[in-house]
Amino acid sequence: MTEADRVPAGINPNVPSVARMYDYYLGGRDNFAADREAAEKMIEIGRKMGNEARQIALANRGFLGRAVRMLAEAGVRQFIDIGAGLPTQDNVHQVAQRHGPGSRVVYVDNDPIVLTHARALLARDPDVLAMEGDLKDPDAILDDPRVAEHLDLSQPYAILLVAVLHFIPDNGEAAHVVARIRERLRPGGYLVLSHLYAGNATVDETIAGQSVYKSTTSGGLASRGYDEIAAYFDGLHPLGPGVVPVSDWTPDASPDGSYDFVKSGILAGVGRIRG
Ligand SMILES: C[S@@+](CC[C@H](N)C(=O)[O-])C[C@H]1O[C@@H](n2cnc3c(N)ncnc32)[C@H](O)[C@@H]1O
């Protein structure tokens, strides 16, 4: 089967998809030539900055696994993963169900190819729902009747925004989306979030990265500073060390640890609704 044979109907393989680029960073095979070319450009830009895009993507997956495990061990049984990405190893439902039997997961993504793969993989798991949705409209996701059918929204749930918010380039819109999500979380609910970190990138490096993502399905990308990322947790009780480099986030890491923010590439945190 050639690569062209693998292109699902309705997908333009010549437009790089942020989901398939991430799959490429992670060493997956669900990507096409245009995705690999764009991803290689990002890998090169990262390398010049002393960052390794592949390691950062793997570190981000590691954080996702640790955070879901901690929440499942704490008794959380409902997860809404927005910007879920292509299925890979140790997907959210697998980690959640391993550490919290009976966990139910809703995967949401705005990339149709993610939905095709997710539905094929998950077809036999009644505890998992995969649906199309846009992070820019969190109410449309949370008010979708399929979500209310799949989860008990009167009980606490965790919302996962892992390596997705930076695809909303407008700062005000990104802040508004997360504020709305915090409002929609129930007492006992959690926000799990990781985000591309601006670090000490020069203006030229930032522009180079942005120009690669401008021509992708997301249409843009914004790395952000510590204060902006930490503000996404406003009003939440931080779990673990607070907002730290993604590879350093563990439930028992200290907030006072010495973290190398500059090299981290992505910052991450977990917050719980107070009360
Ligand atoms: C870098 S991947 C992250 C996948 C997974 N959350 C992880 O961290 O391993 C980003 C995912 O977010 C999706 N995405 C980007 N913008 C989105 C939006 N506005 N609404 C929903 N999903 C979006 C992409 O299609 C892609 O699958």
Account of the protein in words:
- The chain is of the alpha/beta class.
- The model has no long low-confidence stretch (mean pLDDT 93).
- Helix 8 (171-184) links the parallel strand 4 (158-162) and strand 5.
- The chain has a seven-stranded mixed beta sheet.
- The chain is built from eleven helices and seven strands.
- The chain has helices at 18-25, 33-48, 53-73, 92-99, 112-122, 138-142, 145-150, 171-184, 203-214, 226-231, 261-264, and strands spanning 78-82, 104-109, 128-132, 158-162, 190-196, 236-245, 266-273.
- The radius of gyration is 18 Å and the shape is globular.
- It has one domain: Rossmann fold, CATH 3.40.50.150.
- The structure holds S-adenosylmethionine (SAM).
- Residues 18-19, 22, 60-61, 64, 82-85, 109-111, 114, 134-136, 162-164, 167, 218 line the site of S-adenosylmethionine.
